[in-house]
Write a structure and sequence with these properties.
This protein is of the alpha/beta class. The protein has helices at about 15-25, 65-75, 85-90, 95-115, 150-170, 190-205, 225-235, 255-265, 315-320, 330-355, 360-365, and strands at about 5-10, 30-35, 55, 75-80, 120-130, 175-180, 180-185, 210-215, 220, 225, 245, 250-255, 270, 280-285, 295. Helix 6 (about 190-205) packs parallel to helix 8 and helix 6 (about 190-205) crosses helix 10. It is globular and about 65 Å long. The chain binds NADP nicotinamide-adenine-dinucleotide phosphate and ligand G4F.
Length: about 375
Amino acid sequence: MSRVALITGVTGQDGSFLSEFLLEKGYEVHGIIRRSSVDFRERIAHLEGKANFHLHYADMGDSMSIVKVVDRVRPDEIYNLAAQSHVQVSFDSPEYTANVDATGVLRVLEAVRACHLEDRCRIYQASTSELYGKVEAVPQNEDTPFHPYSPYAVAKLYGYWIVKEYREAYGMYCCSGILFNHESERRGETFVTRKITLAAARIAQGLQDCLYLGNLSSLRDWGYAKDYVECMWLILQQEQPDDFVIATGVQHSVREFADLAFREAGIELRFEGEGADEKGVCVNGPERLIGKTLVAVSKDFYRPTDVVNLCGDPSKARTQLGWNPSKTSFEQLVKLMVEHDMAKVAAEGVAAHVRTNLAEYLEKGIVK
Ligand code: NAP
Ligand code: G4F
């Protein structure tokens, strides 16, 4: 009999990689999706129709819908990845973020109890390095004090503590993975890394003039999402439930990420000025771009409180889970994202060109 996994947030970056990972391990995978007026299933389109892959409508804000899915699926493992996951957006929609990212976790735990699965269903909670927020130590490990610094982080802190509480109060097997930033070619386009790799590709191909960013000095510990979903699974395979920091242990600034991404796209930048006046000027690359400002700062992307110094210590994951934090380097990550976006932008350019000239092509019989 295959093991049964239920993934909330299956349409997201991590949900899509985790689905692939679990299907390859022979799991029957069920995912929760929510209704949308447009199709947001791009990341899992290639999995739909597979015999072991099933989707169910539910919403993290709707307890009954979660109970019904848990009861129907009766999972061995739940991966609770669904969240309003954008930190800046959480300042604009704090109440919604709390409902989904905090109370949503409680709904999943209670659904498992309501379906009398608490003795056999293991639960993974997608916790975050944002809990360290206004950091009290660098690097951060499982013992570093939390100081959440956004509505998102405060909501996620509730998720972390309620998981711990249910573990202690009811003996449930539930764990938090405290994951540091992880990125990929599937990353949402408004997170800083993907925003940069897409812009570098568009600027290199003449489709964008300038990239506007917020705090260029912010430091992150960036890993590859595909490597990180393995940890989610490993965490649920341990004898005893426990929480783990998942990170690479290597730190870079937003500026360094941009510098390398543009270099991968064939553009060399020189950063000059400070704070809101800082600019990335093209010093080498296509003739038409030399001397132009390709990266500039816009205060629109500043946050009321910003987390600026994240660097994780993955020692516990390395020793206890046997996980390799250095599988994909920062340089490899940037390269794979830029290569993907260069191809994506080129393909979009061709499609746009065909759309613009469609009438002419139809007339000439080039397309039918
Ligand atoms: P993501 O790409 O933004 O995906 C979020 C997922 O949650 C999407 O499938 C989304 O569905 C779903 N969702 C949001 N609100 C929902 C609701 N009300 N009901 C049902 N589903 C809902 O995020 P990710 O990068 O894969 O991250 C996965 C999880 O890890 C999140 O909980 C995030 O907070 C956490 N995390 C991420 C990182 C990171 O660096 N990526 C680091 C630490 C922790 P739609 O597609 O319909 O919007
Ligand atoms: O890419 P970001 O939006 O990611 P952030 O805020 O670190 O959150 C991500 O990682 C967390 C793990 O630590 C997850 F829990 C969370 O769900 C999400 O996946 O911003 C990274 C840094 C920030 O300091 C931000 O101020 O980049 C800075 N930044 C500078 N310019 C920008 C921009 N961020 C965005 N999104 N857009 C900018 O233009």
